[in-house]
Amino acid sequence: METRPNNSEESNLAIPSGNLRLPLDWTVSLVMLVVALLLCLRWNVAINFDLSIYLEICFYLIVVAVAATLVLVVGRELVNAIRKTPIASGTQDTRLAVYSCIARSLFLFFLCSWIYTHIKTGVLIGGDDGNDLWLREVDRWILGDDVWLIARRFLPDASSGFFSFIYFAFAPSLLISILYLACAGNVARARKLTTAILVGYFIGVLSYFLIPAYGPAFIFESATCETLSPNTYDLQVRLLKTTSEVSEAPATAIVLPWMYIAAFPSLHFSHVIILAWYFRFSKLTLVASSVFVFLTGISTVYFAWHYGVDLLGGIAVACLAILVTEKFSVISIPLFGHSSGGDDG
Q: Which alpha helices (DSSP H) does 184-332 contain, by range?
């Protein structure tokens, strides 16, 4: 009579199962790196990166962000001292946790920015297939006219300097927000903000390929901002030049940091929405961040960086990035067989 092995013998012979658990921010960074390498191979884009320019920009952003964060932290301490409001010790993280959060956030932010640049270089290789005309018509159907013309009717030319400052405050504001949250004793929120920004970068840069377009400032004569802000106009000319260089000779072009264009969706707008979401812990921060979102949206269309519909796309990217960040803090990758682990969120 044939006998079957008992349960203990079966368990000893079974293939071990387990999961590799990776934090979401590191997972997104690694996946972005793989995508960038694959796309560079697909387009034959040489990874000729001007490291000196990139390091110079990173150094400048970090110095500005650290200085502004110190001002905000000192100001907060002064306000608390005047009001005699003690800070709850239970909300404070250790110095090691704060410093490690800052180092990790800065590293991943700049790493993903570097990877994002390489992915973005190939968006417009081969042209936009008329998508700019289509996006412009969508704007006109919704608003009745070009969104940049509407914005310029209501805003005086004298406000161009202010809105130019708002638009270029984008990257420093993200870093200042991350550093401030960490220094204020909310490492968990700072890490979530960083992760959501990275997820937004990944979703946004891939969505560029769904509707590749230049943006109104680079296509339509009526959208030029040469008389409004010569500095912004000069930058737009440089961006168009570097984008065209990669499109014409991808194998020999030098890849420059953040120097490429793509219209739909607006990651500028999506990221300030993400910032506002994680700064809603008080009425003051909620109002300040909401005003910044509003002004960024205006500056984005005022200088014709984006179509109005691009802002809607930015809202969608922000909502999806926040949803993913809130639901998944860790990504679990099966190594052998099937794991019976719980939810990764």
A: 187-207, 230-248, 267-278, 283-302, 308-327
